[in-house]
Design brief:
By secondary structure, this protein is an alpha/beta fold. The chain folds into 2 domains: 86 residues, MurE/MurF, N-terminal domain (Udp-n-acetylmuramoylalanyl-d-glutamate--2,6- Diaminopimelate Ligase, Chain: A, domain 1); 212 residues, Hexapeptide repeat proteins (UDP N-Acetylglucosamine Acyltransferase, domain 1), CATH 2.160.10.10. The protein has 5 helices and 40 strands. Strand 5, helix 2 and strand 6 form a beta-alpha-beta unit. The longest helix is centred in the last third of the chain and has 26 residues. The relative contact order is 0.05.
Amino acid sequence: MEKTIQELASYLGARVIGDGDTRITGLAALETAGEGDLTFLASVKNARMFAMTKAAAVIVPVGVDPCDKVVIEVTNPHLAFAKILTYFQAAPPLSKGVKEGAYVGSGVQIGKDVTVYPGAFVGDNVRLGDRVTIYPGVVLYEGVELGDDVTLHANVSVRERCRIGNRVIVHCGAVIGCDGFGYAPDGAGWYKIPQIGIVVIEDDVEIGANTTIDRAALDVTLIRRGTKIDNLVQVAHNCEVGENCMIASQCGIAGSSKLGSHVILAGQVGIVGHLEIGDYVMVGGKSGVTHNVPPRSLVSGIPAFTHRDWLRSTAHIPRLPELRKTVSVLEKKVQELEDKLAGKSA
């Protein structure tokens, strides 16, 4: 694809400084961009690299000195560059229909421009919306419903009756709607509690590779619109994850917990069951959340508490051996004083 810088700026609704007829044939990072490339300056901290770049044009924050380069001014260069990346690869994949070697059960409803690759299994009474793409190894159990523009990558499994909205992407090996971890004590053993609920995934959600979202015991495990879930995440039964959340790799959310909207969980966060995490909460990496967290909080640690206090606490950890020695010396001196006082009293 080849576009002028003015065409790209118009697509972004932004202003060009310099020659708007400059032609762009590719996209690259600031340090590797060359002739014909468009790149972006995410922060003024990279001003030296910006001055040295050989890119044909650069997307920059508003107010940055263009240094005699052709630039597009925007408020958020990172977002603008992401939109240009999407624009450059916007050609939709060609529909290939149901390929030989795919299994499609009875009563299946298939929308327009659907692709089902060989090795996929589509169970009875499944509904596929328009422009759905199902890669090899995908298994859709009976009664699954997929909206429009859904992409399920290789070896995704979606269990019976679960529902997925529009423009959802699920990456390789993810499992949607497996049984929740529910057992009742039965003497010396455990009695499995039937998990008869489902998983509902709303529009514009993305789910990473090998992530697992358990079906509810009775009702719905819910992932609300716009949420992005990284690889290797566990969402247990009966949970609700709010809109536009960001959940990083290796997080675990125990059963019946509820996350508000715009919650950010850094890598390896663990949340115990039956908690409520408020809107716009941020949880630092490796934290263990053991209590409800009010909206707009920033917490870290095990157990998690206010991030600022956690930083202060962790600053003392390297000094603990020294502090222990100091306390031992003070204990000895206090004991000596007490002994002297006891001797005088006698």
